[in-house]
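re: that chain from earlier
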Amino acid sequence: MQRSQKSAFTDFLRRVFRTDQGKSSCEHQTDYKALGHASGGLEAEYQRLVEHHLRRWGVSEACASVEILQMEQRRGKREVFVATICLHSWDRNSVLRVLLGLPMLDKKIRQAVAALWLADMSEFQGLLLKVSPGLHESAAATSELRRLLVSLTATREPQEIKADDPVSQV
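^ sequence. v structure.
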């Protein structure tokens, strides 16, 4: 009886500590370099991360898109990335969230990168903001943004603002 228990225990240990021969090919790989281009690379991970935070803030894909740029890669050093948020269309709440919340969004993304494996493989330099030419030509967006800026930042009464004042031409 003792011999069969010993044999069963030995078989159990062999199954537990078996080498990779019996593992299926669908198991997760944890080595980033072993994943190759199938995962999309570091750019794709940064893209997903920034887009995730924008969507959580209520900024739609139609309003803003994200581009990830690799700035440099020095020999023996980590890759350096920058995220550029491009505003495409005027959605008052979304655009204001991005414009006013850019420092907070940058901080949130830096914290997320630091908590993930991305910080081990690369360096995040921050967020940039770009406005598409189509948004420049939108008169409704420009006038509404001008009114909002003046109402938020004006220290003088509206009747004191002159037509040649640079603030009123924003």
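The helical segments are 2-16, 32-35, 41-56, 92-115, 118-121, 133-136, 139-153.
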